[in-house]
């Protein structure tokens, strides 16, 4: 497979993963409501940094660790706990009426405050690790046959799909924000908090089930 073909195919396959509902999508929507369009791209910067580190680790031969069920189950427990805390924080801010549409987007955007959660939400999802240990590792092996250029084309195409999709989601949220009032806004934040808690409990359940019944 040529370098160009690697880029295009990685871009297309990247969309198949990016468009799937999950904690990152939920967080991008919530961040866009709070901080505006920049939230989506900045959260994906954190996601991209994490994936770049992961690719380096996989190339160094740590793919066995990422496909180890003990590791992914433990990650599910830890990551689930983090998502549970995030979801609780969102619901708490609604109950205490700490959030409002008034002035939300005008607030100064804390770059680190969006980049870091992008990485945390991603690594909290054990299915993200599982994807990279299986599909991602297989594709990475093919791209590595073309050397640094092949690996770079794969990563660039893959992460570009994430940037395009989540930037589009942010734009949709900011555009639709004009149709919201405070009550609807708080309702959405509470809903996203509940969704994060759902993912948290699902990840933690899988981890507990493995350690208890295996």
From TrEMBL:
Keywords (A to Z) from UniProt: Cell membrane, Membrane, Transmembrane, Transmembrane helix
GO biological-process terms attached to the record: amino acid transport
Subcellular location, record wording: Cell membrane
The protein's name in its UniProt record: Lysine exporter protein (LYSE/YGGA)
GO cellular component: plasma membrane
A Pfam short name: LysE
Superkingdom, natural source: Bacteria
UniProt topology in membrane: Multi-pass membrane protein
Transmembrane region(s): 6-29, 41-62, 68-88, 109-133, 153-175, 187-205
């Amino acid at each position: 497979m040529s370098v160009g073909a690697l880029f295009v195919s990685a871009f297309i396959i990247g969309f198949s993963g990016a468009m799937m509902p999950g904690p990152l999508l939920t967080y991008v929507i919530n961040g866009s409501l709070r901080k505006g369009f920049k939230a989506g791209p900045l959260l994906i910067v954190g996601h991209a940094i994490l994936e770049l580190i992961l690719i380096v680790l996989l190339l160094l031969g740590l793919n066995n660790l990422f496909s180890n069920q003990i590791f992914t189950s433990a990650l599910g427990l830890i990551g689930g706990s983090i998502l549970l805390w995030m979801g609780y924080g969102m619901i708490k801010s609604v109950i205490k009426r700490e959030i409002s549409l008034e002035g939300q987007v005008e607030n100064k955007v804390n770059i680190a405050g969006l980049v870091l959660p992008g990485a945390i939400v991603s690594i909290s999802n054990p299915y993200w690790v599982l994807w990279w240990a299986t599909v991602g590792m297989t594709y990475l092996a093919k791209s590595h046959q073309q050397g640094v250029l092949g690996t770079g084309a794969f990563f660039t195409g893959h992460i570009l799909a994430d940037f395009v999709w989540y930037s589009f989601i942010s734009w949709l949220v900011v555009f639709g924000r004009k149709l919201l009032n405070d009550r609807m806004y708080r309702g959405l934040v509470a809903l996203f908090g509940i969704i994060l808690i759902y993912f948290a409990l699902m990840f933690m359940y899988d981890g507990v089930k493995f350690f208890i019944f295996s």
